[in-house]
Amino acid sequence: MIEARVLDIQPHPDQATNNPGWWAIQLEVTYDGTERTFWRWYCDRKVRHGMTHAERNPKPSTEEVLRRFWDDTFAELHSFAFGKRLP
């Protein structure tokens, strides 16, 4: 089983001032007793007039980050039926 969890969510170090919708996400993934920790960028920038940067670009939730991680990591794998369990 692959387990993933979010360790940290911080404003992107190079983009925080001009592009506050960019986040630096630290993930930990475990598989078969082996752990890997790494950083990944996350962007969910929204352009809405009349709102502050913080209002239109709130910090993402752990659930949003994990959903995006799963989709980004496995979306290009074809012919896998992740919705079905093996017999």
Explain this structure.
The protein is of the alpha+beta class and 87 residues long. The protein has one domain (2-74). Helix content is 20%, strand content 34%. The protein has 2 helices and 3 strands. The protein has helices at residues 53-56, 62-74, and strands at residues 2-11, 22-31, 34-43. Strands 1-2-3 form a 3-stranded antiparallel sheet, with helices on one face. A hairpin with a 2-residue loop joins strand 2 (22-31) and strand 3. It is elongated and about 50 Å long. The protein starts with a strand and ends in a 13-residue tail after the last helix. The model has no long low-confidence stretch (mean pLDDT 78).
